[in-house]
Amino acid sequence: MTGRPVLTIRGLDVDYGTGTHAVHALRSVDLTLHRGEVLGLAGESGSGKSTLAYAVTRLLSPPGVITGGDVHYHPPGQDPVDLLALSARELRAFRWQELSIVFQGAMNSLNPVHTVHSQLTDVLQAHRPQSRAAERTARAEELLTLVGISKDRLSAYPHQLSGGMRQRVMIAMALALEPEIVIMDEPTTALDVVMQRQILRKLVSLREELGFSVVFITHDISLLIEFSDRIAIMYGGRIVEEAASADIYRDPRHPYSDGLLHSFPALHGPRRELTGIPGSPPHLTAMPAGCAFHPRCGKAFAPCASHVPVLAGPPGEPDRTVACWLHRTPPAA
Ligand code: SF4
After folding, report:
1. DSSP 3-state assignment of 73?
2. Which residue's alpha carbon is nearest to atom 7 within ligand 1?
3. Any domain includes 171
4. Which of 35, 110, 188, 257 could form a cystine bridge with 196, CB 3.0-4.6 A?
5. Residue 216 pairs with which residues in a beta bridge?
């Protein structure tokens, strides 16, 4: 991806708790989101995907604490903004306006006693108090149409809409102020597979039309292969591989990425045998030494249990990174 960066994360560390009771939830996370890109974030539960989304948006609640690293937003034509240094007031203006987030099960967070019209126009009024009521209604109609819902449904209450429609209302809300970045944390997990793909296809076409960037978080790597430009795979709080979706699909370099690809049926392309990944993800309080994946890895060898492999490009491949001793010279025993 060659577009300019819109979000850069460098060396991000997050702990839950402090002092001797702290557990490390994220370790040295480096990630770049480019303008107009869909960046997928994959990994099993507990890999750190949602913690990363909460940390970047400064929505991490105690005992979660950012202990290191930096996160910068790069607005078009302006100096980078240090997101970790923003005041509460600056953050409120930043969220929705520059970056919006659709959480897991967000469709259930619509207020049941307010119409879609009132919920969409509330967002507009809060951030653009000078706008007139007629303008806000026109924008709400436009937003519903954008996500493929008839504007007649503006007067509906959430319970009068299907799950897929409610999730699309949440996406409309996320796009209301034309943010540069939309973070989607398992946005379609509660929906059936057909509805999931309909919504994601809509999102990708809106991205092409409006030019925003997306961080799309899910445990289902087959969805990411279909809808992302690049994919970062997380395990044990670290990024273990990052590459273009097509490269991850054709030639995953990290044994964990390979295991994920063999855990979900692909709707398109050649069939793969579903072998899954043996064992369970590590608990944050008992992270294995060395490569955290080594107790489950069929390719583990001598250095894996004692040395953490750094995330770096395999020789001669500048566009991908992998953290695995199979792809670099292991330390001497
Ligand atoms: Fe497997 Fe070792 Fe690579 Fe970790 S570093 S994924 S244990 S081969």
Report:
1. strand
2. 294
3. no
4. 188
5. 40, 184
What SS3 string covers 1-28? CCCCEEEEEEEEEEEECCHHHCEEEEEE
Number of domains in the chain: 1
Domain enclosing residue 299, as ranges:
5-98+179-327
Distance 304 CA to ligand 1 centre (A): 6
Give strand pairing partners of 324: none
Most confident of 124-128, 152-156, 224-228: 152-156
**Ligand 1 pocket: which of 233, 322, 326, 327 to mutate (most atoms within 8 A of CB):** 326
87, two tokens = 């005041």
How many CB atoms are located within 10 Å of the residue 256 CB? Answer: 27
Residues in the chain: 333
Does the pLDDT value for residue 121 go beyond 70? yes
From 300, 227, 269, select the one nearest 39 (Cα to Cα).
227
User: What pLDDT sits at residue 106?
Assistant: 64
Per-residue DSSP letter, 205: H
